[in-house]
Amino acid sequence: MPVNVTCACGAVYNLKDEYAGSRLACPKCGAAIAVPALPPAPPVHAQGGDAAFARDKFLLNQQHLAIREKYDVADEAGTPLMFVERPRYIFLNVLAIFAGLFAGLANLVFFGALGTGVKKGGGDPLLVILLSLWAVYGSFLVVYLVAAGLAKKRHITIYRDESKAETLLRVLQESKIQILTASFAVLDPQGVRVARIFKNRLQNILRKRWYCHDGAGAALFTAKEDSMILSMLRFFLGSFFGLLRTNYMIYDRGGNILGEFNRKLTILDRYVLDMSADSRRSIDRRAALAMGVLLDTGEKR
Ligand SMILES: [Zn+2]
């Protein structure tokens, strides 16, 4: 939000926040201008009635060897604030993949045989080509659709603590088949939608980018990888044993930085979500935290 200041000579300037409270020389007449200070930042409200979210910095600590993905979310001092769980359903999903492979094989055998039969019977050559194309390429699609359709959705639940007695927030995967887009609904414990977070996989090839809208569908912020080069290297090399991790910057609609999501350079897998650049507290911290967890678990790294 720019600061407006008018010089005694009549010149009007729109200055960036960082000049608030300082004295500048007017470029036009040379007179000193006192730039008014910003109003004090509003406190971070206990959003959704819960004090756990009323802060700018969150530490996400992954429990690495857990089969079901689990996290502690702590404050700056390391005091636990919340417990996050995103089950993987490994056994069920392996079953789903086998079912997909079986269905794909059945498709290949059936349409392959049908194509051969039509050819032997002297049928339309175009039909023969279409049947054999579907037998080969359609089988891949069948594998994917059956496996994805049978897999369990990977919802995220954020609890008060490890006892899981009290739910603070839920992040629900909106659909099983997520070929071009992936989307998640962020709900409070009463089921009221706080935000919707989504990405477009085609855009993600060059630079990973996730969008967040508020409960009413208005754009709130975007999280974008900070380095296109690292992003492209990761696309070709994968995470490269975890070395090619990138940070995300969080921007508002005008391109101003609101926060960042960084990997801490410690032995432990520890990420910091830092929203202190959002001095106006314009972003619901529940939506920001949900984005942090998705960036960590929703990108394969
Ligand atoms: Zn002036």
Give an overview in words.
- It is a single chain.
- The chain contains four helices and 16 strands.
- The strands form three sheets. The protein has a twelve-stranded antiparallel beta barrel with strand order 5-6-7-8-9-10-11-12-13-14-15-16. Strands 1-2 form a two-stranded antiparallel sheet.
- The chain has helices at residues 90-120, 125-150, 228-237, 285-297; strands spanning 3-6, 12-15, 23-25, 32-34, 57-62, 69-74, 80-86, 156-159, 167-173, 181-187, 193-200, 209-214, 219-225, 248-251, 257-263, 270-274.
- Helix 1 runs antiparallel to helix 2 (125-150).
- With 301 residues, the protein is of the alpha+beta class.
- The longest helix is centred in the middle third of the chain and has 31 residues, at 90-120.
- It starts with a strand and ends with a helix.
- It has three domains: 3-34, no CATH class; 47-85 and 154-297; 91-150.
- It is elongated.
- The structure holds zinc ion.
- Zinc ion is lined by residues 7, 9, 11, 26, 28-29, 31.
Number of strands: 16
Most strands sheet? 12 strands, antiparallel, barrel
Low-confidence stretches: none
Strands of the biggest beta sheet: in what spatial order?
5-6-7-8-9-10-11-12-13-14-15-16
Overall radius of gyration: 26 Å
Strand content: 25-35%
Envelope shape: elongated
Structural class label:
alpha+beta
User: What share of residues is helical?
Assistant: 25-40%
On the 0-100 scale, what is the average pLDDT?
84
Number of domains: 3
Question: What's the SSE pattern?
Answer: EEEEEEEHHEEEEEEHEEEH
Q: Helix tally?
A: 4
Ligand inventory reads: zinc ion
Distance between the termini: 36 Å
